[in-house]
Design goal:
single chain; ComF/GntX_DNA_util-trans; about 240 residues; Rossmann fold; Phosphoribosyltransferase domain-containing protein; 4-stranded parallel beta sheet; PRTase_dom; 9 helices; two-stranded antiparallel sheet; DZR_2
């Protein structure tokens, strides 16, 4: 048993797991509260919120991003979902990533998303939006990677690291659209192994999107290296 598992076991003994939604012991998300988180019923361009076909970036916004889609799984205004995301990122409840990944998987399967875009385990790879090494050291894990790994495992797709975060950017929370763009400008670089995936479709995973600045900057780096089939997938979208 690794140190992390031992630590989690001890913490579970001292502080038993409680449902984020109702406080019931035993789980971070009980079945009843899980059913209160509905996946989105409307597809829209996540950059302008106009209705779009299966979450495609609309023609008017395509000039501003290299992304083909930003799929948004659920409504950020759902208080249980907000608490789950907060618990994962700021209370370091790593196990919550599995619950969030299961929500993503339900969305993908209910709408048959991958089939709509001819995404298969042979022609695609899953990539998490990276954290800077200082933030990764502080948190102990990258929440986007955890969710991405669960999705990759379920669909039997490769999980790969194609992007590094060079700048330790300030949090995007509280910044307006222009400041968000400036904050992440030139924040990312390509990993050394990117050339192995030039013919692959890239599924880029993040937890929350607001204006799409971070995802767009990641996609710009990938496109500059010849990776052009880039799709983004997030748990929820926070209001701008």
């Amino acid at each position: 048993m690794g140190w992390q598992k031992i630590k989690n076991f001890i913490l579970d003994l001292i502080f038993p797991k409680e449902c984020i939604g109702c406080g019931r012991e035993g789980y971070y998300l009980c079945k009843s509260c899980r059913e209160k988180i509905e996946i989105k019923k409307r597809f829209e361009c996540a950059l302008c919120h106009r209705e779009s076909n299966f979450g495609r970036i609309c023609p008017g916004c395509q000039k501003n991003t290299s992304l083909k889609t930003i799929w948004v799984v659920a409504d950020y205004n759902n208080k249980i979902l907000q608490s789950l995301i907060h618990g994962l990122k700021y209370q370091y409840l790593e196990e919550i990533s599995t619950h969030l990944a299961n929500l993503v998987i339900k969305y993908l399967e209910d709408y048959n998303i991958f089939k709509q875009f001819d995404i298969t385990n042979e022609n695609s790879v899953v990539v998490g939006v990276p954290l800077h090494k200082k933030r990764l050291l502080s948190r102990g894990f990258n929440q986007s990677d955890l969710i991405a790994q669960e999705i990759a495992k379920y669909f039997k797709m490769p999980f790969v690291k194609l992007i590094d975060r060079e700048k330790n950017t300030q949090t995007q929370i509280g910044l307006d659209r222009q400041d968000r763009q400036r904050n992440v400008e030139n924040a990312f670089s390509l990993s050394n192994n990117y050339s192995n995936y030039k013919n692959k479709k890239i599924i880029l995973i993040d937890d929350v999107v607001t204006t799409g600045s971070t995802l767009t900057e990641c996609a710009k780096i990938l496109q500059s290296a010849g990776l052009v089939d880039i799709y983004a997938l997030v748990i929820a979208q926070r209001e701008d």
